[in-house]
């Protein structure tokens, strides 16, 4: 039996199944079981096992069982973990190209993001990941982040002025909020509920699924679909693991990984629809169809700060010209 990952599987059902395979791969995810990313990689594992006639097994470890995102990324780079599903945020300082596709309003819609990431721009970013020992198998959907708060409906950019919003600990996010005329308050995700409840902040921003599952809708009933950030995520395999595989097995994983992208995106669309319906049923007001033009125009100083090299400017132009 060949164990690709650096750590032997713990005893139990997973180990028993793995014992039947020649190659055992472990994939890490911070999301819980049932989440679209987790289920898409599990689907991939089923396909890989079937197409390899039981030679290759892929087990997904959800809910940060193998560590938090930053830790699992590093372990995958070293080959301790074989695969990881991760957001682009932790890579912004490592793979410069990921910072460009993390800019506010760089994508017009989720469909625009899919077309960009599945094309030449995605291939260019994959080359950046490969330089850091990660082989991209596909790009998932991290969702469209929008504002929610407990004070008032946000229908225009003027409604944001002076409000306090929690953001991730990211310079881009802080600068984005300043450009909107709002105040950024970086804080851990787990503190957001109580911070809104006690008035430390007015609200936060995230995708509809997170707004729902976190329970934030209970203390912030106004949710505005401004979609200021449409985030791709990456599914990657360790270069250490990759180079141990035969070419035909590499091809099998590449194909199954690419196919899992469509599965994930379909599951995500269903999850978003379910979450929006659930929060509205619970009393939230979802503000749709706002004019995004002033929001987009306000991002000019953010782009001026972060899009400074000829390469970055070319990528921005390529993304914007993609139809």
TrEMBL record:
One of its GO terms (molecular function) is carbohydrate binding. Keywords: Periplasm, Signal. It is found in: Periplasm. CDD domains: PBP2_TRAP_SBP_like_3. Pfam families: DctP. Residues 1-18 form the signal peptide. GO terms for cellular component: outer membrane-bounded periplasmic space. InterPro entries: DctP_fam (IPR018389), TRAP_DctP (IPR004682), TRAP_DctP_sf (IPR038404). GO terms for biological process: transmembrane transport. PANTHER family: DICARBOXYLATE-BINDING PERIPLASMIC PROTEIN, PTHR33376. This is DctP family TRAP transporter solute-binding subunit. It comes from Paracoccus litorisediminis.
